[in-house]
Amino acid sequence: MAKVWAICKRELAGYFSTPIAYVFIIIFLFLSGIFAFYLGDFFGRGQADLVTFFSFHPWLYLFLIPALTMRLWAEERRGGTIELLLTLPITMTEAVIGKFLATWIFTGITLALTFPMWLTVNYLGEPDNGVIVASYIGSFLMAGAFIAIGSCISALTRNQVIAFVISLVVCLVFVLSGFPLVLDFFAGWTPEVIVQAISSFSFLTHFDGISKGVIDLRDIVYFLTLIAFWLYANAILIELKKADL
Amino acid sequence: MMALVEIENLTKKFHDLTAVNNISFAVERGEVLGFLGPNGAGKSTSMKMITGFLAPDSGTVVVGGDDVIDNPVSAKYRIGYLPEGAPLYSDMTPLQLLQFVGNVRGVTNLDERIREVVDKINLESVMEQSIGTLSKGFKRRVGIAQAILHDPEVLVLDEPTDGLDPNQKHEVRTLINAMAQDKAIILSTHILEEVDAVCTRAIIIARGEIVADGSPVDLERRSPRHNAVVLVVRGAPQAQVTDSLNGLDMSGSLQSREVDGGLTEYTIFPVDGKSIVADVGRLVRERGWAVERLEVDRGGLDEVFRAITSPTN
């Protein structure tokens, strides 16, 4: 555990040693605010809740999280430091989890910094704070799934731009698979079971559930399973690809 | 008693290319093993397998009783490794990097240990600069510092003096010599003088196979020039000298050439690299030649290296 923490700490410090951290935090706060207030018509709705704020999180994560994860392994491979890292007395699991946790904690910090939204809505009215807490938990779990996908794909290549683009596309698939447009496309010619299955793979389906204030064990299990699966794939990919320069 | 590092039948293929082909050797505590070979011979690949970075296709590496494949974490605790090109996290400072490596390796008294190592390697002046801004020489030294931080039993250094200036090279070699006694050190290089300077044993590897294994002196012995005697004589008639030298028991062949000012240089190659300087000396005294210069050639490692690694061989 001390080793995982050492790796996590190094990675986290890495975010803050470059402008990445600050750019990410500012853009996230700015966009989440803009989306909630303008696109989501926060005031016009006259409701004391953060539904509009949270509803844009999947779309923000879609673009911003691949930017955080693209460097995780691609940079190690490009700089050759992967050789330094993986000849330290650690297991592959420790390395993968350490890096994943760093990005997850960083995203958690960013998410926590959106607290003025919470204060605002509490100032303006009497929202159901239970729902808001649930939504934060849901958003955080969903971010974890995005990060696990991004981390895994970052292990595929030495090129960060490629890692960014592929991560974005894969994440898009996971977001869109719950979108009516996509489901309608399949609904016409595939059995109901498959449409259900596709929908059940979507971040949106599970995130919507939690952000309504219903913390269903299945939604939590869904995100945690997804994280575990992608991190497992991540470890295998590094094992396979680390020899390729 | 097992050697500290035991390598058996190690093989690694990349697609169709056999990078390392069935190599075996052992390194004892106190040995400094020089790994020589042309670029692409398989030196780095071998080192990557010894340190557990790459899994071999077949064969075993056992370090201090721990198999690197079956028991990688325990084996890696015993090893300090400087990878080829000394890759380091360029956004960290040397201090941060050493703290990170020390934490992962569970080094006790880390601060004290960092001070010791930094002192030994002369890094104080750059400890707070980011590694990306350091000169090549400092980067290499930071790489060496992280490799020896936990005082490992086994040290694997891939081209430790590459890119250093002559003074820095000398420092690194002094450091290696100082540590050699209680460690097994494997270092790769293509600087042959380095082998003479630090190694107790050298392995030459070419096309993935070991082509020579012995002490630097053993390897020099393979040179046709080993123990050849160069004799520069003033005045004496060339034919007479040549005859006398050819008369020696041990002398194989003889070369002579005129040098300016009535000097003639003779090079006497011995049979089987035996020492003939005493015989030549005796002959010189008997004949009373005016000798300007008399020296024994040890035979260059680079000649041996070229002879056994060139593809035409």
Can you give a write-up of this model?
The complex is a heterodimer of chains A (245) and B (313). With 245 residues, chain A is mainly alpha-helical. Helix content of chain A is 79%, strand content 0%. Chain A has one domain (2-241). In chain A, 41% of the residues are buried. Chain B contains eleven helices and 14 strands. Chain B has helices at 43-50, 72-78, 94-104, 110-121, 136-148, 166-179, 192-198, 216-221, 238-246, 277-287, 301-309, and strands at 5-14, 17-27, 32-36, 58-63, 66-67, 79-82, 154-158, 184-189, 201-206, 209-214, 228-234, 251-259, 263-270, 290-297. Chain B has a six-stranded mixed sheet with strand order 6-7-8-3-9-10, sandwiched between helices. A four-stranded antiparallel sheet of chain B has the order 2-1-4-5, with helices on one face. In chain B, strand 9 and strand 10 (209-214) form a beta hairpin. Chain B is elongated and about 75 Å long. The two termini of chain B are 37 Å apart. Chain A binds chain B through residues 2-3, 6-7, 9-10, 13-14, 17-18, 79-81, 83-84, 86-91, 242-243, and chain B through 14, 48, 51-54, 72-74, 76-77, 79, 81, 83-85, 87-92, 96, 100-101, 103-106, 130, 146.
Short description:
The complex is a heterodimer of chains A (245) and B (313). With 245 residues, chain A is mainly α.
Q: Strands, helices and their partners?
A:
The complex is a heterodimer of chains A (245) and B (313).
Chain A: H1 2-17, H2 20-39, H3 51-55, H4 57-69, H5 71-79, H6 81-86, H7 92-112, H8 115-124, H9 129-154, H10 160-176, H11 180-187, H12 192-200, H13 203-211, H14 217-241
Chain B: E1 5-14, E2 17-27, E3 32-36, H1 43-50, E4 58-63, E5 66-67, H2 72-78, E6 79-82, H3 94-104, H4 110-121, H5 136-148, E7 154-158, H6 166-179, E8 184-189, H7 192-198, E9 201-206, E10 209-214, H8 216-221, E11 228-234, H9 238-246, E12 251-259, E13 263-270, H10 277-287, E14 290-297, H11 301-309
Parallel strand pairs in B: 3-8, 3-9, 6-7, 7-8
Antiparallel strand pairs in B: 1-2, 1-4, 4-5, 9-10, 11-13, 11-14, 12-13
